[in-house]
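User: When convenient, might I ask for sequence and structure tokens for a protein?

AI:
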Amino acid sequence: MGRCRLPRVSLATVLVIAALGGCDTPRYKNTNHPNFGEAEYKNDLAQCRGQNSKIVTTTGYDVTTSVQVDEAKAQSCMNERGWLAGSR
């Protein structure tokens, strides 16, 4: 009778999988409008980030432009709109 061989898994692999499984983004809830969902959250986030961003042009060998968002101000805007992080 043959032995059943299970694949060997290193401890590091198990730890990485466990760590990644614990990475969960918080779900945001609107305290002012409890019926708001993901679509309203994404809309408000886009508006808050847009209101708190600026276009930066860097000159040198090449001219580059990028958008910089003041994340602290964007988060403050979201809090003012009633969005707070909650657990899933």
